[in-house]
């Protein structure tokens, strides 16, 4: 199998890279900050403060469930500035037999369902796109796995009675829209809305949803891009067709066919982004680490609605691949932990590459699948380390 | 002969840079700095601007989208806005390194 990077290139670049790593390595354990205090979120990478977009550093991904203080935050708009939980209502309307409203207490009294879901922003990995594309320049950490709990959306809809004309379900939240920005409203097909694992989430990791994560209720559409899981729900409307708005078109769409980097794509040649891609990330060793010869590489792998079939690791720039061991924690829509250990025979620089394959046969590509919005980028992950003599 | 993969090289360059001392989120000085602030910061902060690395055509699309979405830009300033952003945040500018939220031990 061909190598992804030439050995000659690696040898030429190694001295400078090693020099940089020797300088950088002692500093890698300190977190820098600019005094941006976000209560409940420490050491997170600030992609934006207003609107709040916080990325999880890769080194924080060391557990199956990511604690709330390390969970990434993504907002298109301003979070609700004032929300009275007692006065809050969730309205169900549209193509239903009768419109209804629910209080939080009423939703809590319904049968609750738990979904362990790996939530990933559609733009995770956008920073890798060349040519660069506009948007939040997420690298690897716009992702997290949490336990979400609440009534099934289909049970909520059943109370209102969905008409046969109801084909899509629209979510509207209480985010505050600046200027003339279109509101963040999106819809999902009725089949996904009535799936047994799609919930109106009230709790995350056992606690009521916090403000950053959509208090008091959010949609939770498992295995799909984060944008499908609308936060601060206020209205769920059943529609005859897909919602027509900016964040359904031209927003959050993927080209129907692969495109060349930099190529323009017409909206009519696109489809909505829905389920996540197969993907993996290396969480340890950290990039630039100086390690001893016994190396344990660890990370996560996920595939949206599919299962992870295998994770392979290469330590010779893609010439050869070995199977990593998958962790025992396993849930339909959640990532799998993986690890791979080996003894490096010689000191020097190594590039560790991880590549996941899912149960439908999809495998991570070895190059970025460019698209104009930088969505669903799932190129193999890699880190460069240095093995001491 | 094996082929160098550009994506892999970029990925490696991203991960080997220190994610420590975030760069300033201040807009570069220039005659338009205060107009940009007035037009843009009504809705969002500078962070979302300074992390972009776009060619002029892409900046043009972004400026026009922002104007459509309510950014107050005099028509006579539109071209200058595009020029300012294109020259301040071009594709080949050094990658932006974002700061982190405060930690208890490392507060500045």
Question: In words, what does this structure look like?
Answer:
The complex is a heterodimer of chains A (389) and B (108). By secondary structure, chain A is mainly beta. Chain A has a domain of 109 residues: Immunoglobulin-like (Sandwich), CATH 2.60.40.650. In chain A, 9% of the residues lie in helices and 31% in strands. In chain A, a hairpin with a 4-residue loop joins strand 1 and strand 2. Chain B is mostly helical and 108 residues long. Chain B is 44% helix and 0% strand. In chain B, 31% of the residues are buried. Chains A and B meet through helix 1, strand 1, strand 2 and strand 24 of A and helix 1 and helix 4 of B.
Task: Tell me the layout of helices and strands.
The complex is a heterodimer of chains A (389) and B (108).
Chain A: H1 7-24, E1 45-48, E2 53-55, E3 90-94, E4 100-102, H2 104-109, E5 112-120, E6 143-151, H3 153-160, E7 168-173, E8 185-189, H4 190-193, E9 199-201, E10 203-204, E11 207-208, E12 218-220, E13 233-239, E14 253-255, E15 270-272, E16 279-284, E17 290-291, E18 294-302, E19 308-314, E20 322-323, E21 325-326, E22 336-343, E23 348-358, E24 381-387
Parallel strand pairs in A: 3-13, 17-24
Antiparallel strand pairs in A: 1-2, 3-4, 5-6, 6-10, 7-8, 7-13, 9-12, 10-11, 14-15, 16-18, 18-22, 19-20, 19-23, 21-22, 23-24
Chain B: H1 6-16, H2 33-40, H3 47-50, H4 56-68, H5 78-88
Helix pairs in contact in B: 4-5
Distance between the termini of chain B: 50 Å
Number of helices of chain B: 5
The CATH class of the domain at 25-95 in chain B is Mainly Alpha
Q: Kindly report the spatial arrangement of strands forming the biggest sheet of chain A.
A: 4-3-13-7-8
Shape of chain A: globular
Largest interface: A-B, 67 and 52 residues
Helix content of chain B: 40-55%
Number of helices of chain A: 4
Helical percent range of chain A?
under 10%
* Major beta sheet summary of chain A: 5 strands, mixed
Which CATH architecture of the domain at 25-95 in chain B is right? Orthogonal Bundle
Radius of gyration of chain B: 17 Å
Strand content bin of chain B:
under 5%
| Gyration radius over CA of chain A | 22 Å
CATH topology of the domain at 279-387 in chain A: Immunoglobulin-like
Which structural class is indicated by helix and strand composition of chain A? Answer: mainly beta
Mean pLDDT of chain B: 81
The sequence of SSEs of chain B as H and E is HHHHH
